[in-house]
Amino acid sequence: MSISDRIQQSQWVPLLRDSDNIYFSPGIPNKKLQGAMTYLPHGVSPNDILMLIDDTVFGSAKVGMCLTAKGIFYKASFEDEQAYLFEHIQRIEAHIGMITSSILINGQDELNFTQLDKGMVRTLVSFLNEFCQGLLGRQGNGQTKVNIDAEMQIMIDLFAYFITFSTGQWNARSKEAVSDHFTKLNDKTVHQYVEKLLSEQMSFDYEDLLHRLADMKDKLAYNFRREMIGQLVYAMALGQVEQNQADLFMTHLCRVSNVSRAVFPDLVKIIYECLEGKMNQKKVSDLTQKQLQACQLLEIQPEVLGEQTLQAAYRKKMADFHPDKYQTLPESVRQLIEQQAQQLNQARAVLKAYLGV
After folding, report:
1. pLDDT per residue over 141-157, tens digit each?
2. Are residues 157 and 72 in the same domain?
3. pTM of the prediction?
4. What is the total count of domains within the chain?
């Protein structure tokens, strides 16, 4: 079956055709093709384009995305063009924001679309995953077996467990933390396993992890076990595990891995204090003016901004705007109060998007 035939048979194509900004070969207007050629790399011809997304307001197609048999080519306004070959794509996800909607490639590269609504972006992601899997001959849901060393696997699995312990699930922040921590290693199998873990959003049972660690402790060098515990405490701090709980986890890990707790007298305290200072500085410097205004509206100090402080501050502020308190006031006053409540909701949404929750 040809690639064009595979596209035509996709269940997502009829939905994508409903968009005024998405075109499929051979029905792509010449004007759109000419616009897209301004950002496509040398060697790609108009005949290679299977799908085109025009993300411009006036229809020039000089900004947007093109799909070929080799990969995805993308251009955003005032930014350099980007190319993503299918052989390097592990996963594609939808990232829905307040203003723009985008797709994430491999959990880090973001392709924004201003002319597509949220539903269309989600449909686009489903189509691209289907197309990518079919093109590369993947089976089922694309799961692949990765031959990774057992000691690195248990390290990564435990790291992932502690990163997601507080939220109970994966979010943008936890994915980024795991990816950043392990992709620094120059080990292809580690990279592949981390990509598999993130794409499948794998979860783990703590007791099972401890049993696995206990079974292999005699095969692991002492220095590796000691270093592993330090990295896992770091994961607990990144995952915002309560410090008392982190102390308990560390006691478990030392006992199971046969490393004396006395080797790390103040490790949890030191890592938490260092990371807290680093994160506090980063939060204030990273926040945009809009995010700082949202903090001010909710009366949150930027350096202590977190999921729990956000929720507590929001509930406290919204308690002042309960409708039952103002039923007897004039309608004009009630409207002002309702507008203020809407501003609090918007501020909360802005900060939730920043925190990735």
Report:
1. 444 556 788 888 899 99
2. no
3. 0.43
4. 3
